[in-house]
Amino acid sequence: MRILVVGAGPAGTRCALRTAGRVPGAQVLLAGAEPALPYDRVALSKHLVGDLTQEALITHTLADLRAAGVSYRPGTRIERLDLTAREAITARGERIPYDRCVIATGSRSFRLPLPGADLPGVIAWRDLAESRQMLQVARDGGPAVVIGGGLLGLEAAVGLAARGMKVTVLHAVGWPMERQLDYDAGTLLANRLRARGLTIHMPAATVAIEGKERAEAVLLKSGERIPARLVAMCVGVRPNVDLAKVSGLEVARGIVADAAMHTSDPNVLAIGECAEVEGRLIGLVAPALEQAEIAAATIAGEAAIWAPRAESAALKVSGTHVWSGGEVAPANAEAVTLRAGESYRRLWWREGRLVGAVLYGDTSEAGFYQILIASGRPVASRADAALGQAYLKDAA
Ligand SMILES: Cc1cc2nc3c(=O)[nH]c(=O)nc-3n(C[C@H](O)[C@H](O)[C@H](O)COP(=O)(O)OP(=O)(O)OC[C@H]3O[C@@H](n4cnc5c(N)ncnc54)[C@H](O)[C@@H]3O)c2cc1C
């Protein structure tokens, strides 16, 4: 069986490796648009801040892939699938035949449609090449503006500051990482980042990026003008669905797939951030890898179904431990809060079960809360649970 995996991000690479290991006699070809070997996208933040070299980002060498039974073609963008002929057409016009094709084209960073958003020096951070561009500008120091105070924006800001830039973060909401943190945890985090030298404007509305040949300043609705040699746009992502669309596959917000990862064509599967599985988009690496495993099982003819789990996220490079899991500040839940020194912990409960948690400062209990949320176990003493696993005696 000829299996073509399109996109060599974490989902595509995992799927190619698992399929090669599972389907006897499979010829697996992994085609990725990026010129690099498969690398750890999540670790780009650590690379930007200077904790990891570019070499250390690489997850698989050509020899690793070959030994696992996967042929790799970097720099190969697939433009269209001919669903009838079962062929993929590359940007260079080459036709690659397949029996099964897995689309794992991921997402791209969204660029706000502002005047000046296309100027050189404005980078919508997503991949290794963009990280290199950011590092190149950062080499000469000077002011940088990060638009977006979500997880990615804060990691960009901390990274650029560590590289010697004077960084201002502009965030549209009143506290950072509002999807993962409640107001109190977000405020603690913002204060800590300010104490470390970042300037943070919240809420802030950006109206334009100014500059003649390249970005020079960011203009706010308030009229304030913030100088910027580099503008990092970190305002969310959009699934890469163009390939699926031009090929005639069903696309909603992402490429429509069922829980076994089948798209509207029986020979094509979709996984990772490009896929909308049973109506659900994902934005984290763990579920993307789970979907890769399911697709490999589906291709191998095994019955496998992807079941979404409670999501969790951690800020990696801020020097401050921040973690959140499950539902954050949901309307119909009771909150229990614990503050001790620099640490803050808030847990949300519904019908005696933990449904969400935010940890700031001390995140040592993150694994425990994640398991508690995922298991849905009833807990009698919320106060004990707030103290941590060692204090909880009554989990049923
Ligand atoms: C800096 C950074 C930090 C992050 N930190 C975290 C974190 O801490 N925790 C977490 O869970 N997630 C994090 N994420 C998100 C995580 O990286 C994604 O969830 C994950 O990469 C999704 O994997 P994917 O394989 O679906 O898509 P992607 O990683 O986007 O990979 C898709 C690949 O397909 C290629 N491609 C696209 N179109 C085509 C085409 N037509 N032909 C061939 N190839 C194509 C792309 O070039 C890309 O290489 C972070 C992301 C970034 C950028």
UniProtKB/TrEMBL annotation:
SUPFAM superfamilies per UniProt: FAD/NAD(P)-binding domain
Keywords associated with the record: FAD, Flavoprotein
FAD/NAD(P)-binding domain: residues covered: 1-292
Domain NADH-rubredoxin oxidoreductase C-terminal positions: 313-376
Gene Ontology molecular function, alphabetical: oxidoreductase activity
Cofactor(s) it depends on: FAD
Source superkingdom: Bacteria
Family: Belongs to the FAD-dependent oxidoreductase family.
Record-given protein name: NAD(P)/FAD-dependent oxidoreductase
Species, as recorded: Roseomonas indoligenes
